[in-house]
Amino acid sequence: MRWFRIVRLRLRSLLQRDRLETQLRQELDFHIAEQTAEFIAQGMAEPAAALAARRLFGSAAVHAESCRDARRTRWAEDLFADLRYAARRLAASPAFTLAAVATLALGAGANLAFFSAAWAVLIRPLPYPEPDRLVQVETGIAGVGPVLSLRELSSAADYAGYLPDTEVTVQLAGEALRLPAAAATANLLRVLGVAPAQGRWFRPSEEHAGQHRVVVLSHRAWRERFAADPHILGRILSLDEEPFTIIGVMPAGYAFPSAATELWFPIRVNPANRGYMWGGQNLQALGRLRPGLALAAAQAELRPIADRIRPQFPWRMPDAWGTSSAAVPYRDVRVRDARPKLLALAAASLLLLLIACANVANLLVAQGIRRGREFTIREAIGAGRGRLFRQLAAENLLLAALGAAAALLAALLLLRLLPLVLPELPPGAGPGLDPYAASAVCLALFGIFALLTFLPIRRGPTHRSLRLTTGLTALQLALATALLIGAGLMTRTLSQLANVDAGVQANSVLTASVTAGPSRCGTPARCGAFVREMSAALAAIPGVKSVNWANGIPLVPEIRAMTVDMEDHPRAPEAPAYALWHSIVTPGYFAALGIPLRAGRLFTEADHAGAEPVAIISESTARRFWPNRSALGKRIRPVSGRADRVVVGVVADVAQYSLTGFPSWVDGAQYLPLEQVMPGSAQAVDFSLLLEGNGLSAGMWQAALRRQFPDVAIAHVATIREVRDASVADRRSTAWLLALLSALGLLLGTVGVYGVLQQRAAQRSKEIGIRLALGAGPGRIAAAVLREALWVSLAGAAAGIAAALGLARILESLLYGVSTSDPVAFFVAPGLLVLTALLAALVPGLRAARLDPVQTLRAE
Amino acid sequence: MSKPSDLIQGTLDLLILKTVSLEPVHGWAIAKRIQQMSNEVLQVQQGSLYPALHRLEQQGWIEAATRETESGRVARFYSLTPDGKKQLEKELGQWQRLSAAVGLVVNQA
User: Fold this and answer.
1) Residue in B12, B56, B58 to test binding to A, most A beta-carbons within 10 Å
2) DSSP character for A129?
3) Which of A543, A575, A617, A731 to pair with A413, CA 20 to 30 A apart?
4) Quick check: A680 and A522 in contact, CB under 8 A?
5) What's this model's pTM, rounded to 2 decimal places?
6) What pLDDT is recorded for position B5?
7) Which residues, other chains included, contact A351 with Cβ-Cβ below 8 Å and sequence gap of 6+?
8) Within an 8 Å CB–CB cutoff, is residue B74 touching chain A?
């Protein structure tokens, strides 16, 4: 109860100050009046009695002050007073306040946004129970047959299989749509540890072909494609022309294998379909470690299991198959691509935060030097050092609070913009402001400012505070140098990539993916007829110059390779076969993309299914396998046992996979005529369409096609130029963000140099005055100021180069065509910095040179 | 009239608590009563009474109420809280032990 009373009393002390003051005055007045009355009763005259009563009482002001002290809320009242005073001070120097708050908003805001994003992508736990126990098998056991065997044989983990990055044609409201989907085994949800929100997942029996026609929807697909239909279960959906029954809807947060996946359906086990079971399907194994077992246990069993799976293949597999299988934490698989970029940006924004802090510290020191006189006076009239310290602390904390608020706003804004440049961020909501990161940054700001209160601020311009500001400036410049070098490396990478000759000259060719179902492409003959029919329909559209087809588009990083034996290159029975990138194209493909012929001939209409199988190879392939000889007439034999192909032409190299080249295991590139390898499949067939023409409006030709071929899905429409740009989007966004961060860093660093030199020159005005009076020319004076800037910036640049080596290591995987110690970036960036610093020093230098010696000396 | 003895450190609180425990009284009356009851030996420095009163109030031992006096003026009357009663007993016990001990030492000497 006593605590309750005390709390009430303290609150009263804080909130009802005016009433308490009146009461206190009344109480003391009453005492003196009573005493006066007593003295009068004892026979004293009135004025004398009042005086005596006052004398007896002592100083009413002092006692009143002691009474106020007894309230124990002085600190709070002082704090309020200090904060009021601090607010007035900050308002009185708006330039300083604005500079400090803006600096903090930029530095801390950028930092907060990038760290929130990095947290969301790299660290936030996956939305599955015990996510650390999920492992994926990489670079080895994959495919339907092998993964099913792995599931049976493994004792360390419960393995499920899933087929990522697939699309399926869905017939919805009279339109054929390509939707991102995933095939999976029945135990996938058990491995992940999630359950459907409605209905059920597949049963093990539904993994078998024939019973496989069941589909589970994502929450988003249910909401957006089916208007959240409450009676969705049991509805029939046409997938690749097959009727599937909708049996379940997943919960909203479920995003496996990616957030874009809209449909899941079972794999279709059919031992008779050897191609599906053991060939083309890249089924991945995802497992949950069994209780008590570690990753090492899963890794240890992979090789023995691979040895047992290898003989199960219907054909002989090389002994090396499966031996490099690795069990990798699933989280690492997910974030692998985004990690270097996010780490680089987080590191860069941390550097920016440090620059910002150094800048604000510098501002505070400068402010302190300007206020040295004020503090001396206040100390002289009796302010205690502790009291002055408390007031400074209040000012700094107020500044920190303003800075933190501005930083939070800036971070929220940046987080809105980030998904535009960082496609790796989880789509949909994007990352929110992470509450932990936000509180950490705010705490850090308050901590830093609390520390800054200890800066030597009271004693006016001393050598110590000058050394401090110079040091802080050099630090800023060093960090800015590191950022500049990082941005320089990325910019150099971009320009190197822009100069890469992709081998494709025609930038305006439109590309699209066209998917036909089994009713169109069930057999090669029917499929050929479909392609010709569609080509004719497209050619009839006004403006269309040429229509070509291929199995892929240059610079879309999809793997298209086959293993072959090359003539003149015999290999030992167990040696791995050569892997050739293979593009399947129509005869006009080379002309449409502007790929020049180097030797032999291009494909013609005569290279049809009945004619001799032919191939065209790339220049570098010809050089590698048949140097100093003509490749024409040489034979290429597919390992799968199909007929030999004769090389009839050699064309220039094309960056089919990526501007940085083919994957390292690809030995060369070949082209095959579509007519000779026309697909025919019970499943959907994907073509890439290349359309050359003038003033084609995408809407128009697509609408025309849709009318004639309502069951054919057309997607991913883009020009070749756009495809190329998209292939370097990742590096471009990193370069842009780094450039932005480094520009901010340079700006802050420059402001720092300017501020420090200005202050230094002002402080040395007496010395400068004397030197001018003694005959030093203005040039010499300006040179002295510039020399100082030169030293500070050289020291900063040198330290920055060292820091940049660390940053470059993080960036390494994003670089192309430049080394991590690229001399251009490492020379230009520091040079730019020193130059900027000298420019910033020019104003204080010239001002010092124009000083009037008489005036300065008189002022002293 | 000899010079009144200075109050021993800390005894002012005890005297105030004791005084207000009898009936609600205002500051001037507390000072007067301490003086009278101690046969004019103990004299409270009038001004320093008030910080002590406010401190005791803030500690929750006594509470104040504003009322009119017989003379028609408004004054603050202090009275003991239940917690203050316990505190008074505690301090009385301490005081008695202390004065007994001091008495023992002084008498033996």
Assistant:
1) B58
2) S
3) A731
4) yes
5) 0.67
6) 47
7) A479, A482, A483, A741, A745, A803, A807
8) yes
